[in-house]
Design a protein that fits this description.
Blueprint (H helix, E strand, L loop, with lengths): L19 E2 L4 E7 L2 E6 L11 E3 L4 E2 L5 E7 L9 E12 L2 E16 L3 E7 L9 E6 L1
């Protein structure tokens, strides 16, 4: 059983809960029935990696040892064994603020007919410290 400290469930139709998409690669995003759907720009297929991100977070890194992300697949991509997550942590010393960027791969931990769950293990990631201000998938 996972100890959930924060969740994005997309349980309000039309609300992305703060997540935004990279408009260069995604032609649109909608939320309905608990699913954030990204519409792929088919003319760019194979040339891009779709990205979504959320800014202005205030997550205490030490409260989170891992994340589980569920991805539903349609005709844009085949189920992959890994996806990547980037994050920005912010540290302040003596009035000076420094941002540190980190990246890690999430491993597929379960597969269903049209979606997969990915686990991001944050233990031991030297950049996963202080306050996390941004996540990008």
């Amino acid at each position: 059983m996972l100890d959930t400290k924060y969740e994005w469930n997309f349980d309000v139709d039309g609300s992305t809960e703060g997540w935004v998409h990279n408009t260069s690669y995604i032609s649109g995003a909608t939320v309905a029935n608990g699913v954030l759907t990204l519409a792929c720009d088919r003319s760019q297929e194979g040339k891009y990696l779709p990205e979504i991100s959320i800014d202005n977070l205030n997550l205490k890194a030490s409260d989170y040892r891992g994340f589980v992300v569920r991805v539903k697949y349609t005709n844009c991509h085949l189920i992959s064994s890994k996806i990547s997550m980037k994050f920005i942590s912010k540290e302040t010393y003596s009035g000076s603020t420094k941002e540190v960027t980190g990246k890690l791969l999430g491993d597929a931990i379960s597969n269903y007919p049209d979606f997969a769950d990915y686990y991001f293990n944050l233990n031991g990631n030297s950049n996963w410290v202080n306050t996390i201000t941004k996540l990008q998938l």
